[in-house]
Amino acid sequence: MHEFQKTYAYRPEINYRGSIKLLARVINEQKERYTVQTIYGARPAVVKGKLRHDASSREDFPSVGDWIVLKQNNPHDVLIIDELLPRFSSIVRKADELETNAQILASNVTKVFIVLSLEEKINVRKLERFLVTVWESGASPIIILSKADLVEDLEATKQKIDQVALGIPVLAWDAVNKIGKEEIRNTIHVDDTIVLIGNSGVGKSTLINHLLGKEMLKTQAVRDSDKRGRHTTTHRELFRLPEGGVIIDTPGMRSFLLWAGEESGLSHTFSDIQMLIEKCRFNDCLHDTEPDCAVKEALAAGELEKERWDSYVKLQKELAYLERRQNARLAAEEKKKWKKATMQHRMR
């Protein structure tokens, strides 16, 4: 393996067999203008030609973390991205409330640091949303509790998170007293691509600066009036860690919409509920009026929190709705594609 590939956490799953001179990794993306890392250094790049023509959705364009093939590698020109190599994982969310489009936050990720600030009350329901997406992506989640100096009973907070995390590592980090950095650093291997996700102002950029050992990213305090974070990071960017591995910073997310097709992520996140469902007498149990329903029995006994069950049902309905919307969109796109092909054929 070339030193460039080792430095930027290339993994065998990418399976590139072409010239090393044409291989690159996307390290920055801003409005379809990219910065890519090559064996000759970081260079500006754009998508043109067949790759752009064949793209039918945002997912078909490169995102930060992607490995790509260049059309050429002329040191004096803006590079052209010729091919997007297959992803082995991607962190995807719904772009916004109105559109049925996906937004890829990062690609070819091995671990996701979900950063939660202890300066404010932990939103367990939002954490569940994060976990559904991460488990579906193929990456492994790690929960980072930032600003640990601001909570009186850290262990009690960890135990509360553990009830949702279900075995996921939960690490505390205190930037003021520099506690927890080594424990976090020890979770990162030389071939890891890490991405940080979380609300604005939870300390993602500060954590990256500490792991990099220098001030690469601007940071701001949250507003005192409402404890809402300010958007310090405005785009996604990949950095090389000094001890190996790479890390991706992302803008803060005040809302996090699921993307269709995340049913396995839902089952993994709510594995406790999934086990109960499997114990129900009937395979098609609706957990309403049916006899011998393990879910109803657990709710009645206090073994399953009603809020957690309600969250599971809500996310399940959200995914089902997205699935219907996405299928309709794909059908419309397919119809549009064939109509265009027919028109081109008639013009010959």
UniProtKB/TrEMBL annotation:
One of several proteins that assist in the late maturation steps of the functional core of the 30S ribosomal subunit. Helps release RbfA from mature subunits. May play a role in the assembly of ribosomal proteins into the subunit. Circularly permuted GTPase that catalyzes slow GTP hydrolysis, GTPase activity is stimulated by the 30S ribosomal subunit. This is Small ribosomal subunit biogenesis GTPase RsgA. Its EC number is 3.6.1.-. It is an enzyme of class 3 (hydrolase). Its main location: cytoplasm. Residues 107-254 form the EngC GTPase domain. Keywords: Cytoplasm, GTP-binding, Hydrolase, Metal-binding, Nucleotide-binding, Ribosome biogenesis, RNA-binding, rRNA-binding, Zinc. GO terms for cellular component: cytoplasm. Residues 96-256 form the CP-type G domain. The keyword GTP-binding applies. Its cofactor is Zn(2+). Pfam families: RsgA_GTPase. The gene is rsgA.
